[in-house]
């Protein structure tokens, strides 16, 4: 089994996502409580912040679950696909997440791997024969 390219594991990506969603989620819920105490006659802002906090804490739970159930190679492949899209500067998050999930699951076809690699040639695909065939060229 091949090592992850350049010993990259994608842990930086995952730890950042986990930390940011946890801090912003807890901060939003805490701030909503403070707003509700300070301005009890105007609960709209507090409720909105609470809902944002709940959404962020849900994202935190999903991210933590996904990161802990994935292998280091799966995390690296997911992060690689996201970073390739980020380098391109395109704003299609749905496509980025779809490519990342398929890369993690090993179902990203060779043509799509080459297309992603072309977006950021200096960032090689972390690969293993068990997960993805390395794109040639």
Question: Secondary-structure blueprint of this entry?
Answer:
Elements: H1 11-38, H2 44-69, H3 72-88, H4 93-105, H5 110-119
Properties at a glance:
137 residues; mainly alpha; single chain
Structural description of this entry:
The protein is 69% helix and 0% strand. By secondary structure, the protein is mostly helical. Helix 3 runs antiparallel to helix 4 (93-105). The longest helix is centred in the first third of the chain and has 28 residues, at 11-38.
| Estimated helix fraction | 55-70%
Parts with pLDDT < 50 across at least 5 consecutive residues:
1-7
Q: What's the main sheet like?
A: none
Q: Overall mean pLDDT score?
A: 82
The helix count comes to: 5
| Tally of strands | 0
Overall shape: elongated
> What class would the helix/strand composition place it in?
mainly alpha
Query: Can you write the helix and strand succession as a string?
Result: HHHHH
> What is the CA-atom radius of gyration, in angstroms?
19 Å
Strand content: under 5%
Give a quick precis of the structure.
With 137 residues, the chain is mainly α. Helices cover 69% and strands 0% of the residues.
């Amino acid at each position: 089994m091949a090592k992850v390219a350049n010993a990259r594991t994608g842990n930086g990506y995952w730890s950042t996502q986990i930390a940011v969603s946890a801090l912003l989620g807890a901060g939003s819920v805490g701030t909503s409580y403070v707003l509700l105490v300070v301005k009890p006659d105007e609960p709209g802002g507090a409720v909105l912040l609470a809902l944002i906090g709940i959404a962020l804490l849900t994202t935190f739970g999903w991210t933590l679950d996904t990161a802990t159930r994935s292998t280091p190679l799966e995390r690296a492949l997911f992060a690689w696909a996201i970073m390739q899209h980020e380098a391109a500067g395109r704003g299609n998050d749905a496509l980025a997440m779809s490519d990342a999930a398929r890369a993690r699951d090993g179902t990203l076809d060779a043509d799509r791997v080459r297309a992603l690699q072309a977006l950021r040639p200096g960032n090689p695909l972390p690969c293993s024969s068990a997960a993805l065939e390395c794109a040639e060229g």
